[in-house]
Amino acid sequence: MLRPIVVGLDGSRESLAAADWAAREALLRGLPLRLIHAWEGLPSDAADLPELEAPRYWARRILRGAMDRLDERYPQLALSGDQIARPAADALVDAGAESELLVLGSRAFSGFGGFMAGSVASATVAHVVRPVVLVRADQSPEDEHLPDPAGLSPARTPERAVVVGVDLARCEELLAFAFDSAALYAAPLRVVYAWQLPYMPGAAEAKAREAVRKIAERRLASVLAPWREKYPTVALQPLAEEGRPAQRVLDATSDACLLVVGRRIRPGRLGAHTGPITHAVLHHARCPVAVVPHE
Question: Which domains are delineated in the chain?
């Protein structure tokens, strides 16, 4: 049985943009799309109190409105929707565990042009065991393609790059997701590995920097070699760059359609478990961000 792509809806512009992105992704992957609206205050239909009619009406309207919108835009899509009377983060974590991909909206980060996850999205990303993609409210299909100087429709121009930030010690799950996505989109794949020079006297710094750079480039090439063979059609752009990892990854996303980062799976459900680099990237990336959990 095919795993669906799941979208969490709350009626916001961000969640509607996430639903649109997920619909296009579902069509590309040949998967069904499931919409979820979860709220712990959602009353049971058995509760017949007049004061519960308003929240029940708005809950139905959020889900029905999104389904009608997607039915009109993507008539060939296999679409379903569910209302769940549970805390949103708990419902999304459980639904995400049974999905191929979980897609959520992210609030704009005022004044910086990036985005940040709200409390529900943050809690979900920190605990779900499947990949999660966060999408900004202003994301559109045109943003997935490079602009054309001749003024052609963006849909007819090449796809923007997929970018993945890697720690070479544990990156198999990230690279699998990133290569699959790049192959699916027919997009180039930019693999970013950031390294930093330890402190040393100035006289030795330049020589040491060149040596460390070459080692980093060789290590990255070695890790990517089997993936080049497995995905010969993906145009690979390896970048072994000096600097802080979060900043180097963000710098590489100026023309990206998707950024892929990792989250190490840790036991327990209390607190955030995204890691400092992923946390920083989620606050400032302009493109959709896929967070891939790994051991």
Answer: 1-139 (3.40.50.620), 143-295 (3.40.50.620)
pLDDT digits (tens, 9 = 90+) for 213-264: 999 999 999 999 999 999 999 999 999 999 999 999 999 998 999 999 998 8
Residue ranges in 48-108 assigned as alpha helix (H): 53-73, 88-97
At 139, list the tokens: 């994301």
What are the backbone angles phi and psi of residue 145, rounded to the nearest 5°? -120, 155
Which segments of the chain are extended strands (E)?
5-8, 33-38, 79-84, 101-109, 114-116, 132-136, 161-165, 189-195, 236-242, 256-264, 289-294
Could you count the other beta carbons within 10 Å of the beta carbon of residue 107?
16
User: Under the phi-then-psi rule, with left for phi > 0, alpha for psi from -120 to 50, and beta for the rest, what region is 150?
Assistant: alpha
Give the Cα separation of 144 and 58 in Å (integer).
Answer: 32
For strands 189-195 and 161-165, give the pairing: parallel
Cβ proximity of 134 and 163 under 8 Å: no
Q: What is the pLDDT of residue 115?
A: 34
Q: How confident is the model at residue 123 (pLDDT cuts 50, 70, 90)?
A: confident
Q: Kindly report whether the global pTM for this prediction surpasses the value 0.85.
A: yes
